[in-house]
Amino acid sequence: MKASKSFEALCLIWPCSMGRGRSYNPIVIIVHPHQEEHQSGSHCQERDSVKKSYIYTDMSINGREKVRARQYQIVLSLLLRCMLLFHLLILMYSILNVKKRFQPQRLSILLAIFLLLIQEPGILKEEGNTLFKAGDVQGALCCYTKALKLSSNQSESAILHRNRSACYLKLEDYTKAEADASKALDADPGDVKARFRRAQSLQKLGRLNEAFMDAQRCAQLEPTNKAFQELLRQLGAQIQEKSVQLSSTDARVQQMFSLLLDPLAQSVDRQKAAQNLVVLSREEAGAEQIFRNDGVRLIQRLLGSKQEELVLSALRTLVGLCTGHQSRTMAIVNELGMEQLCEVMGSGASSVSLAACHLLQVMFEALTEGMKREIRGKEEAILPEPSRELRSMLRQLVEMMPASSVSGPGRDSAINLLVKQVPRKSQKNPDNSLTLWVIDQGLKKILEVAGTVPEVSEGPPLTDNSHMSCSVLLSKLYDDLKFLLSWLHFGRPGLESKLRAIQTVAVLLQGPSDVGNRTLEISGMMDAVISLCASEDVCHQQVAVEALIHAAGKAKRASFITANGVALLKDLYKKSENDRIRVRALVGLCKLGSAGGTDFSMKQFAEGSTLKLAKQCRKWLCNESLPPASRRWAIEGLAYLTFDADVKEDLAEDRNALQAMFQLSEDKTVLFAVASTLVNCTNSYDVEKPDPQMVELAKYAKQHVPEAHPKDAPSFVEKRLMKLLEAGVVSALVCMVKQESPALTETCRECIARVFLALVERQEDRGTVVAQGGGKALLPLVSESTDKGKTKAAQALAKITITSNPEIAFPGERLYEVVRPLVSLLTLDCSLLQNFEALMALTNLAGISERLRQKIIKEKAVPKVEGYMFEEHDLVRAAATECMCNLVLSAEVQKLYVATGNDRLKLLVLYSGEEDERLRKAAAGTLAMLTAEQPELCARIPGTTSHWMEILQALLLSDSVELRHRGVVVTLNMMQANKSLAETLMESEVLEILSVLAKATEQSPVSRTAQDCLDKAMEYGIIKKPEGEGREP
To answer: Which residue range forms the structural domain that includes residue 47?
Structure first.
């Protein structure tokens, strides 16, 4: 069969019924093409060759001939539509031309796939133009992007790039708008629209000189265009203003340079000059002048100064130069060299180390953002790739890890930088080459730091946070790659090698715990840890006990340690004279004692032993004479023991212990332990309610059934919450949220969100939480946490927004940040309670201002609210209707009711006649506001339902004053909108009802509005005022 073969008619048969075992009549489309052969031509020519198309039902085709005819007809028809996909058609034909029974479903799927493949760029472009004119910029953007992927024509692609540039301008994404306009100009330099759009984008990006050149060219091409002339005028004024600013900035920069280079200048003057340089660098004009006047070399000299203040100023100036500027950052990295910057960060002064760490963080961000940014036309294609500088920076940070010349704080800064900058594998950033490179080049060095025991080995100097920072870094690398680390064989034999191995395992158990657990499964490893606990060396005991504590996380291993190591831990706790060993042994016993979790029936130790352990932990926690490390371990012990409700009660009663724990929460190494303890005390962990039938079945089968502690009842939990609030738990949580540390992981944030949700459960406590800063602290938790943590934080925000004044709870711009988390609760994944609370909170926000209503609409909450108006649950349905009642104050929502049919309006009318009074009030209120703002809706109300008059009369006769008021307002709006509606209403019993309501002795809004209705009827001449009876009709 040849593609160009002429034929008289070809048919496409489509089944009318898919039912199995049923006969159906196929629909046949007859297409009559030209008789001449088509040797070549475009798709449009082939389509234009069609003269007529008829559709009819063929009753004569049956049996095998029918199936065979259908196969040929389908293939030929598709071949006519697109000659370029000939091979695909042959493949489809071969699939259909089998001896098996023909399956219409398979044909439908193949046809759907084929129609998707033959989308034309021209059609997509026209669709995009239509959407753009209609105001759907996002939809137009999608159409242009799809068309660009399909288009192979250069001129057509240039037009698509130009159109997409206009979309990006509307969306205020000026970088992409300029990039697309540049691509359009690369293909067609005479495209004046593309040049004008690029000029607009460059103006918004602050590149005024380039924008002026483009605008000038546009004016030359079309001198009479007023838009071009106006843009030229604006750019000229902005360039002049910038030149004045630059000239004044240049003078200030030169003055600062002179002071800093003057060897006779006083130290105080030089410090002031350096600080002024910092201020100048934070302005774009000042930063550019410093960079162009060879300021980097001057800063390099200041970095070598022995005065700490000058070094700090130099580092902060570099931060200003590098912030958000890729090219300057690359030049600074190449000129200064990473060796010098890392040397400064590794110095002994902690303030200098932190400043250098911040500088490197800013450099990383500038370079990585530069890699993500799309090249904007030919003029920026010459910029070098920043990946070389990034790898150079990472190489120096990795080299710092085991270097003995680097201070402890400097090493921690290097680890934290790696934690922040090693990218995770995700859909947004699928390139994990930097992660692979760090693992390849630096994993051994990281493990060397992790395995360092400061008291024994001659390793690099460490701080108390170094091992925890290593754990976080290893965890991030492991999560990124799911990489199974092999067991690390250390070169040196003997006891020190075993000690280093156990220390490494302890660090792995705190980070990528899967790796640590796999390591502990090596034969003899757990025996080696327990035997090392019996060593007489204090350092050996400390390392082994810490490893034992972290190893007891799994129930199987906890049972092994309980059987083989409890006696040893008790001996260390009772007999050791070193507090470091005693407290660690105590925590080990605490962890083993809590292996049963919240199950009251699972007791690892004898009755009362857990309470004694908790009492000792609280005693050490309150002892300020002990070193902070020992007190931190006491919190670790409480984190495990507070699974027991008796321990929770004792801790809640001990206010001194609570305040000591809150005070220690400022130490970032105990954040998770404090958060876990508070989660246990507030019972804010997830509890699955077992199926009663399954419980009975388990008892019958003599299987263990977990039992809840009597003191975990809601009444006990409520009392504990009150005591925690009195002790100042909210202030402690706020301080924890503000910690900028790798230890504040997403899991830790989830725990904090859980505690906040428990604290705002009682309505009486929400004011206390807000007053102590709890509302502000919840906002970062809804964006940086686990999915469950974000949901918990959003629910806490909803509870606060429902009962507190949102403008006081979230002052200023924070109020607008609350909207998105509340909208995120309107999903099927959330519970009905969360949906209900989110709707109530949004109702309160929507009633505050138009700007908030616009924010809610922008977050696409309106369709979700409409969906919940159909919810079966009465409270959720009523809350959604109340939310819509406030949202219709916005003109944009009113247009939805005006533009569409009567379905939305019908729902409100029907809800106004429901039995649920709360739902009736919300629906009638919405109806009253809509009919007041959009009078044309009044004429549609009779067409919504035949019972509309009965519903309106029921509102007017309601016992509720609020419902009567809504009823008379709707009636007045209908009468004012249309005289015929007024006549219909006055001919019914509404006239008598209004007369009665207007006769009320007390002048109320209902009576006044009813009288206004009667006055309107008299104005129309429908009724007359009887003589001698006042205003009565």
So the answer is: 10-117
